Amino acid sequence: MRLFVRALVLACACTGLVGAPAHAGHDPAREVLPNGDGWASTGSGTTGGAAAPADHVHTVRTRAELVAALAAPAPRIIRIKGVIEANTGPDGKPLECEDYATGGYTLPAYLAAYDPAVWGRDRKPQGPLEDARAASARNQLAVIGFEVGSDTTIIGASPGAGITGGSLRIHGASNVIVRNLTFRDTSDCFPAWDPTDSSPGAPPGNWNSLWDSVSLQKSEHVWIDHNTFTDEPNPDSTQPLHFERPYQVHDGQLDITAASDLVTVSRNVFTEHGKTMLIGGSNTSTTDPGKLRVSVHHNIFRNVQERGPRVRFGQVHVYNNLYEGSQVYSWGVGVKSQIYAQNNYIRGIAPEKVVYNWGGTAITDTGNLVDGKPVSLVGAFNTAFPEKKLGTDAGWTPTLNRGLEPAHRIRHLKAGAQPAGRHLVVGQGFATVQSAIDAAPAGAVITVPKGVYREVVKIPVSKRGLTLRGATGRAQDVVIDYDNANGTKKPDGTTYGTSGSATATIAADDFKARDLTFRNSFDRRKHPEITNTQAVAVKATGDRMFFDRVHFEGHQDTLYADSPNVTTRSRQYYRDCAITGDVDFLFGRATAVFDRATITALTRGSDPNGYITAASTQRSNPRGFLITNSHIRSDAPAGTYFLGRPWHPGGDPEAIAQVVVRDTVLPAAIKPVPWTDMSGFPWREARFAEYRNTGPGAGTGTDRPQLTDDEAKRFTKSAYLDGWNPA
């Protein structure tokens, strides 16, 4: 029957984006996998529910309707309209983690019972609270788990269609198609603590979750196409640390295990995740050998930490994928795996970090480009890890490679499900960055293509969880710029003031920015009529704000790291950022960590040439600015720059600056007495300190307060961020 259906439907099959406008008489839900398109096309092919009669076609909008459709007779087509919230009860009302908890389980009780100081680190948790955790997890799975049977097509039928918080479980099924859906935040309410599961270079133990967004077990002939997988708006980076380890609430985005076979994974987006795609679940499996044949092509892996994919046993063809953003590794070469990695494009990732050896012997690596240049990725790995060397021949040559193209064509790859305003691209329906911000819902991702955008940007409190990212992976390629200063006149004749001068004002909590530049290009030399020359590039007031590989450019008051008011503490993390200025160019009352920053102190041709910090930390807040593992550089003459001075806005006596500069290279421009008074407030009454700095500007003495080794333990990134783990 399936062969007949395949021949019938192929005549009108369209291989374009599912959900795109179709020609008359065309039904995307009845498309089948084309011949030659990866492992799932072999043999009888993959047709899903294409043969479903009219009464087997279901349009669903709720969890209850989806469950009913999955239980209906096959072959079946299930068209999802809108977003199905999986964590809902029979009445459609949202369910919280507390609603699943049973047996007396609470997270505080669990933490108390299995604290390594009490339980130890040599055995896994057991006992009543572990039993209660497992039972609570089963309660959640009974609600969020959707069992998919054979001969089924599940497809997004409207822009932005998808499942939030759910786990699509294709277990023991054959001939399944999943297309044009956004799978978002499949989070486990009850992660398990395993003190015996350790990661290299990290404290012992890990928190492990169970639920995958899509899980394949003991299934064959499956096509996963044009979907988007994301943890947003609840990435693991927003979770706390427990037992010194990230409290990870997500497992895989797409896991293919337990002797599954003949799978094609095409034109999906995998983003903002850790354990992305696992193929093969056990090193000792007796059923996986000869199975796990998977094709992974034309997918985008963006800011995923690992497993893109990690493979055991299977013959896996990884071709024409785009990899970009932060990661630990992409291709995990596991036991008896045979990965053939061909014509992929890697952007902004070190070559030696693409491959990792997890007990395998070889991987074929051919035609791949790193930032446009051919690179032997296996060679780069072998050079970096000579003790884990891999061979270069996986022992087979793929033939089911429909659509294979040169790697250079992949750098602008488009993939994923149709969005509904949650992933906006400036220039595609939005003429400006601000217009995209205005249209975006909370939690959306806005991509800004290469260029200079001359505009003022404001992100209000209501846009919580917004991500603003440069498209190229290079901050200098994407610049948001304006040139207002404190004294610049508005059309009504008043002036902007310091806060009003900001090129970007960002008030939303959980905001993220990556790979772009904020600049205030006000030039005081061209405007001698303006005496108030503060010119802010960014004013940031939200909590849990993460700036990753972002540049901040200006002169006076470049980066205003602040909070909404004096009673609110805002944590901000600036990682691998570049900050340029001359007078008080890091200032405000936020609790801000500048980690691995490059701080450029510009010369003004005077003495003093400037001041790097002007913190206004409230007395009640023990932590203000931490500059750590960074490099301060300057062309200014020796001994002409201060590390900082205490800012008391409006003469506020409760603003007692707190700044620590530690493990940082200081230039000769830094003064031997690096702190100074401000507006009549003495620096000695502030909370300034250094620790273990180096470089020609480093020094000690009575005028350079230093932390002791014991004190330094209290002035760390984790202490400042206080339970928030953004990295």
From TrEMBL:
It is found in: Secreted. Pfam families: Pectate_lyase_4, Pectinesterase. Belongs to the pectinesterase family. Belongs to the polysaccharide lyase 1 family. Keywords: Aspartyl esterase, Carbohydrate metabolism, Hydrolase, Lyase, Polysaccharide degradation, Secreted, Signal. It comes from Lentzea flava. The keyword Secreted applies. This is Pectate lyase domain-containing protein. Residues 102-351 form the Pectate lyase domain. InterPro entries: Pec_lyase, Pectin_lyas_fold, Pectin_lyase_fold/virulence, Pectinesterase_cat. SMART domains: Amb_all (SM00656). The keyword Signal applies.
